[in-house]
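Bench notes, afternoon.
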Amino acid sequence: MKFYPLTFIPILKDRIWGGTKLKTYLNKDIVSQTTGESWEISTVPNDISVVRSGSLIGKNINEVIAMYPEEILGKAVIERFGKQFPLLFKFIDAKEDLSIQLHPNDILAKKRHNSFGKTEMWYVMQADEAARLVVGFKKDSNPSEYLDHLHRKKVVDLLEMHSVKKGDVFFLETGTIHAIGAGVVVAEIQQTSDVTYRIYDWDRVDGNGNERELHTELALEAINYQTTPSKITYTETLNSASPVVDCAYFKTNIIALQDHLLWKKTNDAFTVFMCTNGQFELVFNGEIMHYQMGDTLLIPAIIDHLTLKGKATLLEISI
């Protein structure tokens, strides 16, 4: 088998809060005015990514992993997660505020949903003027104070609001209350999980006048009531991989590509590139492949070096 960088057909998700920036900004082939998410690489049940091109075209990612587990995932990943792809990659367009929500940790998620927890990070790709994110409590809280504010529809008063701009990074540990605000496009990296506890939805209703379900009781035990630093500071170095997030589930670097970079893998695991700005070429085995902002690539673990050329910003993610 001749292995190569894999791209997948985006899985597009209509959301009550979605818009059209995934098309106008990231060139996704959306068909509605309320497309909120493009799942770039997913093994969430019923949402399995399918290879878009090359000799593996038409096969889904689970089929490819079953055929070539070590070559795709790498031994380091298989030792921790077996043959399950452990991460989910998305682009998100929030035309309106997302619900205020949180995600359970691994222990609760396994017990309640037979799922991973959902540690995640956001990279802000675009933000309208005055756009903001909700992340965590302003000060340490507790279940009693939280429930009192929730029942009086004042929970927002307890929460920290962050003004955001392009290039901002937020790291969200499980249990952290959060919401993407209106006018923001983010790249999201997370554990493979679709378990979300919605605690407040701004009192909005759908086209039939119904409010979306809230998960008040499930959330109580899952919330981290302590303040936790979430905004990440980092320094970009041109044509180099600059560290941004290093957690138990993934490591993310930012590559500010301005010319060319000879990329070499440093572990026995897959790598994912998410292009958040610009255009670039990837040179591998004498072939030149072209990519642009909004493209997401899975580099199989067996590929240990390649060349990147162009002017682009890339998120480099591995285990």
